[in-house]
Amino acid sequence: MRQLVFHGRPPEAVSQVCHDDVTGLVTRRCAERQLAAALVQAAERDAGVAVLHVDVDRLKEINHSLGRPVGDACLRLMAQRIVDTVDNRGSVSRMDSDEMMIELPGIASLDDVIPLVERLLEHIRRPLEISGQALLSSCCIGIALYPDHGVTVTELMRHANLARRKAQSRGASQYCVFSPSLLEDDTDRIQLRCDLRHALERGEMALVYRPLLCARSGQVVAISAQPQWNSPRFGVLEMSKWTPAARDNGQLTDICHWVLKHACRHARSWYEAGSGLRVLVGVPAEGMADEGLVERIELALSESCLPPGLLEIELTEGGLMRDPHYASRVLGRLQTMGVRLAIDGFGSGHSVLGHLGLFPLDTLKLDALFINDCLDNPRHQAIIRSVIGMAHELGIRVAASGVSSRQQVDFLRDQGCDLLQGSLWSRMEYSDPV
């Protein structure tokens, strides 16, 4: 394996100033100088330069849940993989806590870049082995080319960053090439964040309910409440489209409380009509830090007169692992109330496994990452079988999210999965007036 050695490395007297302490990569300031010099050479030779903006997925969550030393170790391994993949074709630098930049001189066209980017995404996707445990890893990459997408350092770095944001909006392990339309998207992103601040008070939020089915009988046994924003400017937006803006605005907890209140009210009306469906309400990682969470859940149940057993709270691994012992106390209080409890996105990169004994859980919902390729990926098949077996030994049901085909249904049922949810049943989704 190659060591972290980079083109344009400064003399030893200034090496520490120009290299990041955690990864050994060139720092942002030195990288900008290197890129400026590369652009001068490219202009003289009528050549191209590619700028790749790389963002490591879930690093902040790993820092929160497992601690900064594990996050730093994760970042070092990711940096090493990037350097190994780039090899002698360019230089790598660290831009921010979870962001890196790759500069590739001598690029003639995108055809010179895309194969390297695809190799890099595949290399990064391999699990990281840190302190005896395997962590899932991925990144997203934005691409900008000189001179097609900019002729200055500032333009190229900004445009690569915009392309990276677009890639992230598509999910994990994605890449995107800059296009002028992204400049409009960037302006839209600022406007979206401003509009979202007033969405609740203007009555622009609605609830969409998605079914959770029994894997054996195919019957709907629960429904998951998902907030949807009906924006006058941007149209109907699913939660994934505005969650980053809500997080930037500090709105996620308020929106969670709004969902909780109205979902309980709707579930009570279904209960009175003779339905015994549970309603699932997600609590983001920020919500677990809310000291009034239990009281808010009590109030929502009291105001709606919903039996507690018909409410299931879905928590994220990141939220639980911020402070496992505090989370255990909160979950214990909710269990005493009779509320059901679930972990959403189980296996998404947080080491909650060693703390399962602390949490009085009813359900583990496997992350869609494992389900997407469960028919072709033997490693994911082994993980699914292991999680189901372990959970059943603990008296915990297992749900699978992201189910999109009948073949996946058959496989998951054969493995003993209890509950299924995904786009396969999108025709069963419905909304309820708030």
TrEMBL record:
Domain EAL: 189-434
Domain of life where this protein originates: Bacteria
SUPFAM superfamilies: EAL domain-like (SSF141868), Nucleotide cyclase (SSF55073)
Residue stretches making up the GGDEF domain: 47-180
Species for this entry: Billgrantia ethanolica
Annotated protein name in UniProt: Bifunctional diguanylate cyclase/phosphodiesterase
